[in-house]
Amino acid sequence: MRISTSQYFGMNVQTMDDQQSTLAQLYQQLSSGVSLATPSDNPVGAAQAVQLSMQGATLSQYASNQNTALQALQSEDGSLSSVNTVLTTINTLLVRAGDGSLNDGDRGDIATQLQGIRSQLMGLANGTDGSGNYLYAGYQASTPPFSVDASGAVQYNGDNGIQHVQVTGTRNIAIGDTGRDVFLGISPAGSSPVTAGNSSNTGSGTIGNVSVSNPTDPTNQHKYTINFTSTTTYTITDVTAATTSAPQTYAAGQAITLGGGGQNVTISGAPNAGDSFSVTPAAQSSTDVFANLDKVIAALQTSVSGAGGQANLTNALGTAMTQLHNTMNNVTSIQTSVGGREQEIEALQTVTQTNSLQTSSNLADLTQTDLTSTISKYTMTQFSLQAAQQGFSMIQKLSLFDYIGN
């Protein structure tokens, strides 16, 4: 195959043009630090870079969501710690109020202290986070969840909505709890049945706490009343099943078996005929911490006279302390849940950060210039171009006319 002079010259010029173009491209990569400026530079790499950029943006948003969720949970955690501190103070005052040496004035002072603590608890229930949103209002984050009506009773104005945040592609996490759950509810686990004496009792009978011998007995979830038909006999009414036992002989301090025998309770002192006591499952009793506080405050403000009055106060304090125990157990359970969610988010933050760094590294490998490799290519291409230019210059002189002229 014969190659004409014009073809030969054209091929050499094209080769040098290509090398100059390569040099220009390599120079741009070196000066800009970007090896993938346009999709035509590396179509497959460009597609991968788009995917990595989208993944990086998604991970960045998840990281932001995780920070938001963690801050919200930390605010609630701190608030619940304060609530527990207040409830512990209430418990201490109730124990003190049971001191038989106190007089009406002493108990009135304790009632006044409890009223102040109730206001403090109300303030915590209407607490806000760093952004001014109410912690326990549900979806109504701009409205105080609790208010006091004309009668002095506390009303819940929030809803049951629990806000969630998407912290990973497959995980939505709750970033709060409602005021109804925290201050008006109880935890099914760890709560105790509530015993109470009728406030109109005239005898000196006092009821103790429930002792559970068989936690799986279904009748433990029934409500019972113990009604004294005389000072020495009583009947047990299963309010849930609507049944009443035959009269039984009363002995102070002797265990009284309830229902199927899964639990029992003791009554001490000397009840009068017509006196009654009740045992209510925790979930069916009053779970409103504010209403329970109001009842025990009223009991402490009532003048105590005689054995009957002292017994009624003892029963009221016992009921209040059991209800308070259930509330504290509930708050602790919620705080434990909050702490677990905080730990989960912190673990996810570590994973997200690792994935973000790996994604950024992979994207950099695709789009950023490898200086060592690029400089080497630039130098080699430059040498090749110089050699081509010198060779072409020498070949241009290989003409018969040059020899004839000599």
TrEMBL record:
Name used for this protein in its record? Flagellar hook-associated protein 3
User: In its keyword annotation, does this UniProt entry include Cytoplasm?
Assistant: no
The domain of life for this entry's organism is Bacteria
The family database entries (Pfam families) matched by this protein are listed as: Flagellin_N
Please verify whether the record's keywords include Hydrolase. Answer: no
Q: Which residues form the Flagellin N-terminal domain?
A: 11-140
Q: Which GO terms describe its cellular component?
A: bacterial-type flagellum hook; extracellular region
User: Source species, please?
Assistant: Paraburkholderia phymatum (strain DSM 17167 / CIP 108236 / LMG 21445 / STM815) (Burkholderia phymatum)
Quick one: where's region Disordered?
191-219
